[in-house]
């Protein structure tokens, strides 16, 4: 079982602490539909990792035989070097994900929330590991074993959880070295001066060295420059790819159709309207009006779906690939169905009826 899966209870405990601290300060930290979308997208990425574990681990292992050194996991110095190496690779992956359309489409779901709290840390692009893993392959060539790398990468990810909060202000001298909530609030902003800044995972020194640092000064507007406008996690995950495909269809020249996927998000070829490049502070947030019945249904069934998902993650390594694929399909239906119920879509009850009918069989098979 991965460190991330083992940390799930801690995530929810800290979210509870953040909610309580918010109440004590008379602040509403969480918005229910947004939290649902955040947790669903985070679960989707974790499920993708469980399904594609052979592909992701296999890529690293394919490079490892050509390593320059034999590095022992028992060396403390090796662990220190690896933590720096993982964070350095993460910085360049993260920076590239904001500067290339295809990588941005995979990463954009993490930035779509117009709120900022610990649940946003769990909101991830489901297929993002396909992009990020490429940047870590040099660590295999250096000689860090897969298990050692996986542990260091998980620790790097776990560190980033706590910086997704508005309740912690600036932290003095720590701000010069480590990524803090203040630094990461800037990263999640769509204000003009804040765009594509503060990409570090644990260390802010990379941003200071490579010119992407920006301190928090003006009020932050969260989300993407073009709002996703939905709490349906399946739609949110697919929307960036749909938008790129639509832009590609609008592009007159064939070379530009290909080039579009590799260029920065603000780039537009001749014949295509230029995008909005920044957002003024105070943009209204997307919201939906919910009946009590919808709140109860999505809350109860969403929690049950999450419990089944955690059981799948616990058993994932021992399950066959067809069963893992079947569960992934069921979970995608859960994302779309529950998201559709949340937004009052007429087709949503039919999807929910089918996937709830299949749930007992799937649960028995997993257990």
Structural features, described:
This protein is an all-alpha fold. It folds into 2 domains: 3-210, no CATH class; 292-366, no CATH class. 60% of the residues lie in helices and 0% in strands. The chain has helices spanning 3-6, 8-24, 32-51, 53-63, 76-97, 101-107, 118-122, 128-142, 146-161, 181-187, 205-210, 233-250, 254-259, 292-315, 321-342, 348-366. Helix 5 crosses helix 9, helix 14 (292-315) packs antiparallel against helix 15 (321-342) and helix 15 (321-342) packs antiparallel against helix 16. The mean pLDDT is 93.
Q: Give the helix proportion (percent range).
A: 55-70%
Shape: globular
- Distance separating the two termini: 16 Å
Summed over residues and divided by their number, the pLDDT gives a mean of 93
Give keywords.
367 residues, mainly alpha, 2 domains, 16 helices
Please write out the topology.
Elements: H1 3-6, H2 8-24, H3 32-51, H4 53-63, H5 76-97, H6 101-107, H7 118-122, H8 128-142, H9 146-161, H10 181-187, H11 205-210, H12 233-250, H13 254-259, H14 292-315, H15 321-342, H16 348-366
């Amino acid at each position: 079982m991965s460190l991330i899966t083992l940390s799930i209870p801690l995530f929810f405990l800290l979210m509870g602490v953040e909610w309580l601290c918010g109440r004590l300060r008379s602040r509403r930290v969480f918005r229910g539909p947004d939290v649902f979308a955040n947790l669903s997208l985070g679960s989707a990425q974790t499920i993708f990792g469980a399904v594609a574990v052979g592909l992701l681990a296999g890529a690293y292992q394919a490079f490892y035989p050509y390593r320059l050194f034999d590095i022992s996991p028992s060396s403390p110095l090796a662990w220190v070097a690896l933590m720096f190496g993982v964070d350095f690779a993460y910085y360049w992956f993260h920076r590239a994900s904001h500067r290339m359309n295809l990588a941005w489409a995979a990463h954009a779901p993490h930035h779509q929330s117009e709120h900022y709290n610990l649940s946003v840390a769990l909101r991830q692009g489901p297929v993002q590991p396909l992009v990020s893993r490429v940047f870590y392959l040099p660590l295999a060539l250096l000689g860090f074993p897969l298990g050692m790398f996986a542990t260091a990468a998980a620790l790097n990810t776990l560190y980033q959880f706590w910086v997704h909060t508005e309740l912690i202000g600036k932290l003095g001298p720590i701000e010069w070295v480590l990524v803090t909530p203040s630094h990461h609030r800037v990263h999640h902003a769509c204000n003009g001066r804040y765009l594509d800044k503060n990409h570090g995972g644990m260390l802010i020194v990379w941003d200071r060295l490579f010119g992407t640092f920006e301190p928090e000064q003006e009020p932050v507007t969260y989300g993407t420059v073009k709002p996703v406008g939905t709490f349906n996690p399946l739609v949110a995950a697919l929307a960036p790819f749909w938008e790129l495909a639509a832009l590609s269809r609008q592009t007159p020249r064939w070379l530009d159709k290909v080039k579009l996927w590799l260029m920065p998000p603000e780039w537009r070829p001749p014949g295509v309207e230029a995008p909005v490049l920044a957002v003024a502070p105070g943009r209204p947030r997307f919201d939906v009006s919910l009946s009590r019945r919808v709140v109860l249904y999505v809350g109860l069934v969403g929690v049950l779906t999450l419990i089944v998902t955690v059981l799948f993650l616990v058993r994932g390594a021992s399950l066959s690939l067809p069963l893992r694929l079947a569960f992934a399909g069921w979970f995608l239906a859960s994302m779309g169905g529950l998201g559709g119920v949340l937004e009052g879509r007429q087709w949503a009850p039919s999807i929910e009826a089918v996937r709830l009918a299949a749930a007992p069989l799937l649960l028995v098979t997993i257990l």
